[in-house]
Structures are given as structure tokens and as C-alpha cells.
Amino acid sequence: MCKTPPRPVHRWCILLPWLGLLLLFGGMDASPARAQVFYPDDPVVVDPDRQPIEAPSERALSDYYDYVENGILDVGESGGRAQNINTLGEVPRSSWYTPRHYYERLSINELKQGPRQGSAPEPPFRVVDDKSEGKGGGFWVEDARGDRYLFKVDQKATPEMGTGAEAIGTHLFHALGYHVPQNSVVFFERSDLQAVEGVTYQDARGRAQPLDAARIDALLELMPLTPSGGYRALASKFLEGQPLGPFRYHGTRPDDPNDLFPHEHRRELRGLRVFAAWINHDDSRSVNSFDAFIETDEGGYVRHHLIDFGTILGGSPLGPKEPWAGNEYILDAGTIVKSVVSLGFAGRPWRRADPPDIPAVGHFEATHFDPTRWRPQYRNPAFRNMDADDAFWAAKQVAHFTDEEIRALVETGRYTDPETARYLTETLITRRDKIARAYLGHGGGFDRFRITDDGRLAFDDMLDHPAFDADPATVAPVDWYPFRNATGERGDTIGARSAEAGAVAVPEASEEYLVGVLRRMGARDHRTEVYLRQAGETWEVVGVRRSASGTPSAPPVWTQIPVEL
Amino acid sequence: MHPFYLILLLCGSLVATPPASADGQTGAQSSPAVADTTANGKPTRSRAAQLREARQAQYHEVKPVERGSLESAVIWVEDRNVLQTLGVVTEGTYRVNLGGFRTGSGTGLRAGFYPFYARDDVDFSVTLGGTVSGYWLLNTAGGVRQGPFFAQGYVNYRLRPEEFLQPITEDQPETLEYDIRDLFAGGFIGLQPHPSVAFVAGASYEVNEPSRQSSLLGGAFEPPPGARLSALGTTRYAHYNARLEWDRRDVRRLGSIGDRFTPNVDPLTDRPHHPRSGQMVAIAYDRFQDVTRDNAHVNQVTGEAQQYLSFFNNYHTVALRHRSVYTAAENAADIPFYQLPHLGGPYTLRGFEPFRFRGRHAVLFNAEYRWRIWHFADLALFADAGKVFDDIGAWGFTNLDTSWGGGLRIVAPAGVMLRFDVARSTEGTNVILSFGNPF
């Protein structure tokens, strides 16, 4: 009788049961159910991303490749929540972003001052270079103080279009918290410009030509005259720091250790989609960004800027925008297919838009504007990742601007025709309201949580805004729960309290953490969790989480340091 | 506990516990999901410390930015201004244009020298071109403009292998092919009192020398067997012409106004742009005074009207064109076939071969519905109808030859860059790849 010999058991196999036990006991801390949620310094207000580093090298970005990479290639990680946020869902101060107008309202004068430090450029202006980059015309000058400016100019057919838009965009993005150049509209005469001996420029064929008085005259010949017979330009001050090239809307700079969060997961870049939609900044591409190495005593860090706002609103350096700008990607296969099969009658409702006949405005309107359908020129990876939390973060800042503040921002464009300023102001107000209606309902529409002097939890009702015709629905009684920070688990309810006049009582509790759940009557799915932590005799707001689909089952997570580090 | 299991547990703890960093704290590689708590659950670390440590961990991972091969290639193209250079050669002092010359010419290249391209008041150009079908041209032109007045002089030489398809008699072969050499020199003066209105009057000396296609290789001219067109030898004309034009199409024209009005083999044929709105009406009179055979003068009147109806921000355009040509010879002289209007081909009756129809008079109607499917592309559905006839009384809408079809147009800022049409007629299907709109 033949008997099959038993297969030898590998000696490591006997470890398998123990490996299971090992994971059960030794690896338990890695389970999300045991995650510590809040740290003592939460919510952080500063992201320490300005630690001293060595200067990275300049990285040029091809304008063409920018389109190829983002329009055709699938770059960046898709999905997931923003990673660089604090436990309130806000973006901490960083080398990318500075919380401004929404968090501490700027005065009208501060809004109009924008990023400018000091006074306006002072003539005479020594013309030191031609403007070779970008699509618009212009030249570089040094003013009487030796400060270097790029003078961007309008086309003859569209006076004030590009310069006005760039001034408005600069002041707006500054108020929204981004780093931007010091841009302002300036007026000058021919006699204010001086040629500099020995300075040359490259002509269209790459040959060096003298940038002399004749060349300056030729440049001015292409510019429109102001009503007083002078000239107008957008003076953009040379940015501080060593130029490093544009940043990308995906990934990180491998030569900048401070660049921790993939850009497509940065809230200020994902939420930028809403800001861009508001002012129709369809050219919000990588090539219109700028990294600079800012030297400090210990070394330096990289500061990230948005630049070039001449293509916002309804124009571009080449004239009025095409109707598709802001409505369609530069390559949008779905719309093309719809147009082909429908003889052009489907897929483009905005083609019926009727822009105003105002030369400085171009194609900018609000009637057909739908913020959820707005499109930049290409599939910006950060914009593509924008979720309801990112949109809420941005929309509340847009909605925060009053009519008067918007009017003040438009005034920085210094338009000659009052009708231009009036139309732009009204259009921006209408678009602001559409954005508010589209995004502010997330989580029920609550924000600015704070503890009042009498120990109650107060909040702002974001739906109490001129954008909404009807009064917001009543806030339902707030359910309170204990919260265990070490595990992220919520305990059994400890009761509900009614909210009145934008505030709700916090229940007596011995717990270190509490969570209150806010929602509106008749809207159970949209809810906002507010996490409180005991701070002596009172409480402090330490976390906010919004949901559009009931109570999330997973413990809350905000800042997410990439695990592959 | 057995020592083996103790060692195993310790090893497992090492695996499951984040490694300690140099400062003794949990390493930056740890996820915030990992608890940093003491036994009583109190947090021991800060969020900011985690963020700092994560960055410190990256200090050792810093590496220079590396470009991929595709990005490097694109940057190479951009740094060397390759595309700008191409743009320069189509619009600057030295130009190379790709495209056809006229109906049936096929694709070719035209190289030109335009030393005054940036000036509005002076114009001069020398161009040389050739096509795959054997067309050649050498043009020289120069002109001036002062206010609403302009004037231009020119010397042009052309060699055009041309097909003459329409049978004249029953025994004529279906297809006869000829070469025609043109030499014409002359000039014109013009008045443009308004951007939409232009009047031009000119005179030139023309020599037309037809020959059978083999003549390119030295063959002799032979008239078509039984042809009624006896005057098919070399003709020499004093050519007088006048033209009045009212043009309100939204087109962006390149080149000088003189280029537009230099007499062409296709009267009134401007470079096909891509208008989406507006209208154009033009009428031209050409008198070809025979200077070799005293009485064989030819008079020709050509009228053309175009209308573009656009709606929804120019995303839809209905384009209509009508052209009528009247040709008459004095003293019952025969008219050389190459002076006769013709229909067929990519610019007239697209469902028929080029030069399919020739006659003393011609009438043509085109209608297109164009719609934008992309920022740089249009689709079009079209219908063409037309006829040639010898009796002017036959002018009208009866007995028209028709064709219909659809097409794709690649659109550049200056107009249609490439056109791909498929046209159907009673004589079959034509596939057209062309540069520029039909009108």
C-alpha cells in the first residue's frame, strides 16, 4: 500500500496564528476607530511651512505642456478630502494663504489698497525691457525710486479691458487671502518714459534691437489714448524673492521639503475654483502662478503667488473672450458629441448669452452663469477635486462681500465710463448670489461657531443672506453627545437644546469633549457637527464637520499628512 | 510566557509601533491616525509638531525637479519658438503658405517676400509657388495707398494644367486636358471711401497660351476634335476691368488691399475667409480685347452676393451665396474655353469633378448651415445648385445640377485652415480635402 508522505510544513507557518494576535494587540493603534482626533494645539492657525530650507532651483513650465498635462494627461490624485485644513475646516496661515477678509473684515480703504505697500509708481519711468512673455503688450520700467514694474497695456480696440480686470482681480484675490503682486492702474504721459542707453529687446525673429525712443513710440502707438490724451497701464511691481517658476495644481515640489500636501488636496487651491468662477478666471492655470524663494536669516522658504489676472471677467489681452470661456474646457469631448448629433442645438445653453455692448467689459454676464457648471480652460486637478466642503469654504467668503465692497473693488479698475463700473458691479453681485445659493446650504449653512460670554454656542446663519429670497428654515434642536477624543467615538446623547437667535446652550457635562449636531427643520441629511473642548470654566470650539448625508460613521479627520512620507 | 512568544510579541510591537525619530518622539512618518496619547488618554503631542516633523522627514528626500521626456520635448519646441516661427513664415516678411491656388490646382506651397508687410501705405511682394498637380506661379506686385486711394502694379506668370471635361460634340472624348500658361502685367487704381465699399478700375496685358498637357514635355497644341471653339491658340488681350464691392462680412483679412483686387483666374474669388455674419455684394466687368485677332473680343460680367445669418453668439451660421456670370463675344467670335465660366469642384458644385461644366453663362447657388462643434472646428451641411448655358434666356432656377453633403472645417483665427467635405451628386460622391471655405 502506497501512502503519500505528509507535506512538510514550512516552519514559518506556525507563526501565522501568532501574527494574527500580533496585529490584534500590537497593531490596534493603527485602527481608525482608535484614532486620536484632537491635539492640544487644535485648531492650528499656522501651518509651519516656512521652515528654513535651501533655495530650490527655478523650474520653468511650458505653456504648451501645461495644456497637454492638464488637458490630455490624467495628472494628480482624484477624490479625497482636502488635506491641509485645520479641525475647523479652515486653511491655516501658510506660505500659500493668509486668512483675510472673511475672518477679519477689511475696510473699504483696505480693500482698495490691496497688496500695495507704499505709494504708487513714481515717474519718470526708465524703460528697461520689452514684455516678451504672455499674450498682452507692455514693457518693464524702473520708476524714480528704482522699483521695477511691468507696465501691461490695453489693446486699442478694447481700452481699459485688460488693465481694469487685472486691477480688480488683484485686489479681490488679495482680500481672499492669496499672495498676489502689487498691481495698480497708473496713468502717464509720453514724457514720463525714458529710453535707456544700451537696452535692447528681441524682435519676433529673436534678433536684438535697440529699445530706444523710436521703439517706445512704436509701443505707445499700439496703445489706446485716455480721454486726456495720455496713456494708461497696469503697473505690476516686481515680486519679492528669487523666481522659481510657476507652481502646479497637482503634486508637490520635490525640492521643497515644506511642500507637504499635494496641491490638488490643498483647500485654497480646490476652493479657488469658486473664486475663479465668480470672476470668470478661466485662465486660472499653472502658468499664471509664481513661486518665489523668500530669504530669511535662517535660510528661506518658498512663497506661492497667483499672478496675471488680465483674463478675468470678459476680456483677454487679445480682446473680448469667446463665449465658451468659462463654460467649456478647451477640449470637452462630451459637449462636442452633443453638438455634433444635435446640429449644434444641444449642450451649450450659454451660447444664448447676450453680453453687454460695453467695450471694456467683453463677454461677462450673469444671466447664464451657473457656478456648478463653470469651467476653466482645462481640467485643473485641484478644481476637479473640489468637494462640498471646499466649495462651502470658498462660497462663504464670496458671499461675505457686501455690495458696497464689491463696488469698491470694481473702482480699483478706474474705468472712465461709469456704465462699465456699474455693469461689472451688478454682474459680480448677481454671480455672488448664485454662488451663495449653490454652495452655502452644505451642512445646513452654519459657520463662525464661537462660545459667547454666557457660555452658549453661537453661530452665523449663512442662509440669512440677500442671495436667498426666503427666510432660512428654522434650526432644529441641537443634539449633544459626549465625545471621546482618544478613540473618535461618540457616546449616547445627553439631550437636545433649542437654538434661538443664532445661539444654543451647551449642556452641563463632565466630559472633556462634547459634540453638538446642528441641522434645520425638514433637512435631516444636511448637518454640521461642532466639537467643543473644555477650557477651564468654559468651552472652546475645536472642530467643525459638515455633512450632506446624515451623520458620518467614521471618526472625523482633518489634517491628513500623506502616509507615503 | 514562553520566551519564543515573548520575542515574537516584541518583534510585532516593533513592526506596529512607529519608529522613533532622533528627538525621541514618534517619527514624522506616522499618520495622525496613530494615537499619541498617554495611558490616561491625554494627548502628548501637537498638530504643529507633526507638521514640522513631517517636513523635517522630507529634508532627506529632497531631489531636483526632473522633467519627463514629453515635457522636455514640448519645452524644446517652445524654447525655440517653433510654432511662432511657423506663424512668422505665414505672416511676416518671408512667408510660406500651404494650400491650393484655385480649383483643381491641388495642394502646394507658396513662398513670398513681403518687405513692407507691417506698413499700410506701401506694398510689395514677390511670390513663387507650385502644387502637386503641376501648377506654378510667379507673382510680383507693388502698390501704394494714400487715404481712400490705392494703386497697384503687377506682373504675374502662371502655368496651370487644367481639365476641360464637358464634351462639346458627340465624338469628343469625355476628358481633354490642357496646360495653360498665363502672363499678365498691368495695374489698377482703387477708391475705398468707406471700409465696406471699394471701387477698382484697371488695365493689363495678358497672354494665354494653351497646349495639350503633353506640351509640358514639348508636345504641340491640338484643338479638341470637332470643337466649336476654334480660337484655341495663343491669345493676347488688353484686359480692362472694373469692380464695385460692398462688403460687410466679419472677416479678418490678411495681406494688402492690392492683393485682393489683383485680377485672378477666378473673378471675384477672394481668399475664402470664415465669415459668420454680414453680407457681400460685388459686380465686375472684364473686357478682353483681342490684340492678335482683331475682332475676338470677349466681355464678361460677373455678379456675386453672399449673405451670412448668424445666431446664438455666432455658434450657428446660415451661409448663402449666389453667383452669375455672363460672357459674350463680339462679332460672333469663338471664346477660348479657358475664358468660359466653369462649375464643379470644391468651390462651386462640390458633388461634381472640377471643371465638369463650362459654358458662356453660369449661375450658381450655394447654401450652408454651419455650426461650431468645438472652439476650432465647425460642421456644415450644404447644398449646391447651378448650371452653365449658352442662351442667356435660360438664366433661372430650372434644370439646375445639384449636389449636397456635409463637412468638417478646422478653424484658425484667420479663417478656415482645413476643410474636409463629402459631397454627393448624380455623378457620384466626391471627397474634398481643401484649404479654406468654399465661399
Descriptive keywords:
A: 565 residues; alpha+beta; Phosphatidylinositol 3-kinase Catalytic Subunit, Chain A, Domain 5; Phosphatidylinositol 3-kinase Catalytic Subunit, Chain A, domain 4; 12 helices; 21% helix; disordered N terminus; B: 439 residues; mainly beta; 2 domains; 12% helix
Question: In summary, what is this structure?
Answer:
The complex is a heterodimer of chains A (565) and B (439). In chain A, 21% of the residues lie in helices and 21% in strands.
Given as residue ranges, the uncertain stretches of chain B (5+ residues, pLDDT < 50) are: 1-35, 214-231
Please state roughly what percent of the residues of chain B sit in beta strands, choosing from under 5%, 5-15%, 15-25%, 25-35%, 35-45% or over 45%.
Answer: over 45%
CATH class of the largest domain in chain A reads: Mainly Alpha
Q: Most extensive interface: pair and counts?
A: A-B, 72 and 61 residues
* Count of structural domains of chain B: 2
What's the rounded overall pLDDT mean of chain B? 78
Helix content of chain B: 10-25%
Radius of gyration of chain A: 28 Å
By DSSP, the count of extended strands of chain B is: 18
Number of helices of chain B: 5
Query: Strand sequence of the main sheet of chain A, in spatial order?
Result: 4-8-3-2-1-5
CATH homologous superfamily (4th level) name of the largest domain in chain B: membrane protein fhac: a member of the omp85/tpsb transporter family
Structural shape of chain B: elongated
